[in-house]
Amino acid sequence: MQTLLQLLRDGDEGWALLHAEITDAPRFERRGVMLDVTRHFFDVAEVKKFIDSTSALKFNHLHLHLSDDQGWRIQIDSWPKLTELASSTASLGDPGGFYTKDDYREIVAYAAERHMLVIPEIDLPGHTHAIGVAYPELVEDPVMNDSLIAESARLGQPLPVAGEPYLGWGVGHSSVRIHEERTYEFVRDVVRELAEMTPGPFIHIGGDESLGTPQADFDHFVERATAIVFEEGKIPLAWHEVGAAKDIAEGTIGQYWGKTTPEGSHAAEAAHFVERGGALIMSTADVAYLDMKYSADFPLGLTWAAIIDVRTAYEWEPTAALDVPEAAILGIEAPLWSETTRSLSDVERLVFPRAAAHAEVAWSPQRASGRDWESFRARLGGLAPLWKAEGVDFHPAAEIPWSER
Hints:
The chain is of the alpha/beta class. It has one domain (about 30-390): TIM Barrel, CATH 3.20.20.80. The protein contains 15 helices and twelve strands. The strands form three sheets. An eight-stranded parallel β-barrel has the order 3-4-7-8-9-10-11-12, surrounded by seven helices. A two-stranded antiparallel ribbon has the order 1-2. Strand 1 (about 10) and strand 2 form a beta hairpin. Helix 7 runs parallel beside helix 8 (about 215-230). The chain starts with a helix and ends in a 16-residue tail after the last helix. It catalyses: Hydrolysis of terminal non-reducing N-acetyl-D-hexosamine residues in N-acetyl-beta-D-hexosaminides.
């Protein structure tokens, strides 16, 4: 249906469909976007609008990043203080919020009507400062690192303080208490309640940037956490660092957020998911991260991974970064982290038009007629009237010949 709609044109004689025979199927089954609703919160109506505009590009998975240092965004009945005490703020001191279970079910159902599967993420064992605001017995005191201190000073942001909401966006300072059995009771309860209201097969347990957690403790935690997800009837997803652990649950799927040329141990960590019978989703940061700036002077976004213009977002190959069988790559996911996005309009300017580039990378064969930059930029320009009509606040990148009709 989306392919048919993409052929609709407003010509000299009015609206019409191009005369064509359609033979169309996706290269990758897994074509995803991620929305971080934790650093800044977006309500149900805003998430629905995001679903509308991304599902129209044939994305079929929505990854919701529901917890982080800055807040907790999903109702958990067995741990009510998470939303009572740890949901009211966001980055930069902006208002927070959370989804009730009914809100979440409404989002899941709305996405499903548009053939989009929701994947919830609870980020563990790091990115967990907000948990400590609600339940301080579950987390360690913040562990400062040189990068956190320097970046907080440069941005004029506060350092994390145990038991107080964190308003900055530095990373690596938080960890749950690995050797407390109560921690795993918490994980199981959260996973169980998420699983009960998530029809899709996946629960994402995070695992990134746990800089304050000793490696042996990290390995112990993620091995137990991935096992808990399987025991609760779901398939665990995790960021690629989780692949460092020897005994992660078999079949766990990894999400690679390293660069097109892997750094350090990233490639080996990602490959371990495949060795354990799992697979990989490619979110290669220097081409696929939607929160990176288009140019050095763009008012939104960050630059730590790269500056990513539309052409860079289009001209990458998901199977090229890692030495794993091509069949082990399930597809791609383009994440939008929300440190700098204080409104849905901010989100849309970073996501569009680059999401269209990732949609084509995920859908079309690597080598096919029209699968090249010049063809793509001309076709992309034709989306402007549609996005304007639907109120999508896209960035009119200069390299694209935007159409008026």
